[in-house]
Amino acid sequence: MISNHRGIGMTSQRTRDRLITRLKEQGIQHPGVLAIMKALPRHLFVDEALASRAYEDTALPIGHGQTISQPFIVARMTEILLEGLPKNKVLEVGTGSGYQTAVLSRLVERVFSVERISPLQNQARERFYQLKFNNIRLKHSDGSWGWEENAPYDGIIVTCAPEQIPTELLKQLAPGGRLVIPVGGSAEQSLRVIDRNGNSFEETELDAVSFVPLLSGHI
Ligand code: SAH
């Protein structure tokens, strides 16, 4: 059961509005991304003890050594993913708290999200149920293998960093589709964008980033 702890002090709409102002100052422009992040209560995706910090622009712990991504990086990756062709079907690797999943679910038709840590997935599922998000499907597995049954995807977003891009993810990308993924070890990572045109893949390297590692297997 998720308590509401809404509406007061540091979790109020005004606090969320300030976050949106900061995101705009940092260059986020996509009206849909800004609108959903303005409306979505990020504090419901973290532990009650951390709720008052939910609208700071930082990553926060969500247990099991994992973190909910920083709002700016969620906004930036979503904006990049949605550029160009419409994205009807999107795959996310690394559900975590479910916040990025929820942002996506309001901007595309269907979201498929894979998580390797079962308790995190169960918590996210409960949040989607409570908040009435019903275009999200979840799978407990190692997302390096994608989710073949529903492929191809118009977009794939990865919220943990592999050392190298898993080839299965490239295979499951639709022609014209786009993959947004942090790549690298703990010392040095960068955000990459891979566009598929027919059977060729064009890679662009963007900002330096810092994500938890993509790990193999599921627990
Ligand atoms: N989008 C999430 C990010 C959570 S951190 C959020 O904003 O809350 C990244 C998540 O990726 C963690 O939950 C971690 O368990 C998961 N992860 C790491 N390796 C994975 C893999 N191989 N397959 C699926 N999920 C993985």
Topology:
Elements: H1 13-25, H2 31-39, E1 60-63, E2 66-68, H3 71-82, E3 89-93, H4 99-105, E4 110-115, H5 118-130, E5 136-140, E6 153-158, H6 167-171, E7 173-184, E8 189-197, E9 200-209
S-adenosyl-L-homocysteine is lined by residues 62, 66-69, 93-94, 96-97, 99-100, 114-117, 120, 142-144, 159-160, 212, 214-216.
* Helix-strand category: alpha/beta
**Rounded radius of gyration (Å):** 16 Å
The parts where pLDDT drops under 50 for at least 5 residues are 1-7
Amino- and carboxy-terminal Cα gap:
23 Å
Just name the CATH architecture of the domain at 59-209. Answer: 3-Layer(aba) Sandwich
Distinct helical segment count: 6
CATH superfamily of the domain at 59-209: Vaccinia Virus protein VP39
Listing every helix as H and every strand as E from the N terminus to the C terminus, the arrangement reads: HHEEHEHEHEEHEEE
| Strand ordering within the main sheet | 5-4-3-6-7-8-9
Q: What ligands can be seen in this structure?
A: S-adenosyl-L-homocysteine
- The total strand number stands at 9
- Biggest β-sheet strands, sense, barrel: 7 strands, mixed
Look at the structure and give the mean pLDDT: 93
Strand content: 25-35%
User: What global shape is seen?
Assistant: globular
Under CATH, the topology of the domain at 59-209 can be stated as Rossmann fold
